[in-house]
């Protein structure tokens, strides 16, 4: 793909005139299809009928390269002309920088990757700003079954739409993910087998930087997260996290490690200052967690902040920076190290409600015993074990945390 981007940018040269709608002229498109070997067919013939190509946007292979060059900052449109970006010229001579610019650009290319037609609008394309970072984080954890990536995308898009043909929509969303993976293979970002997708080493490094994760030899934070007022057992988790992350990313990590479902609002408190999702609906003075790095609130060993999940049930957690270690070669962070205690059920009523739930489930003669068994989604009270920490399940959830 880098060679195609170079060749296209060189073809643009001093500039090319575009159509009134800002597209390549058909004569230029014909020349580029041959030059770049895009695989597009101009004026395709089906049976005895010829379907005339009316716009370069009808040529998906070529359109992908054109939009990729724009998104990577190699070319731009100015007053009806396609022009090279002068300051991007050094990229064309630096393969590593050109690759990273190409990889980063993918997140801004939903329309080119999933073009709309008169009969089909891609749900993956519509929600690509949510799907793309989630896929990268899932792939960053190591080899992933392709079926899991399709399922991840479906879980993201399906709540937003009323599906008239559920199976068909689900199948097409899966095909869109397959199409995206094929582009990543073409770029050299993913190695693909029939069943699994794996980031290449260069892509691992790029994703690591985009996520703010530590590289080998850089500092890594060991933190302990403890649910306040929990007892018998105390519910806690120990994690290794990169100090380069922002605390909105820390929220994602905490939800996965603890076992929360991420269905409620949350807040961080550090030195009396509140941090959370910036919103005009807040009655509180809340700083934007997306703009706050972890070292800004955990500056030194022994520092503590509070994390509150579900402002109704008010699950408060103490987070302490226990130690600053060194990131190891071959380890992808965050890492779940240890922990204890099951995560309480959502909406049980906070720590007091959780203690009451435990009391009722432990007493088969209690008037509310059967009701609470049903509420908790259990076949019997014996299934409930407050001391059980499902380490492997939490580790998998952490690996795919969005």
From TrEMBL:
Domain of life: Bacteria
InterPro entries assigned to the protein according to its UniProt record, in alphabetical order: MM3350-like_sf, Plasmid_pRiA4b_Orf3-like
Domain Plasmid pRiA4b Orf3-like: 220-391
Protein name stated in the entry: Plasmid pRiA4b ORF-3 family protein
Organism: Nonomuraea marmarensis
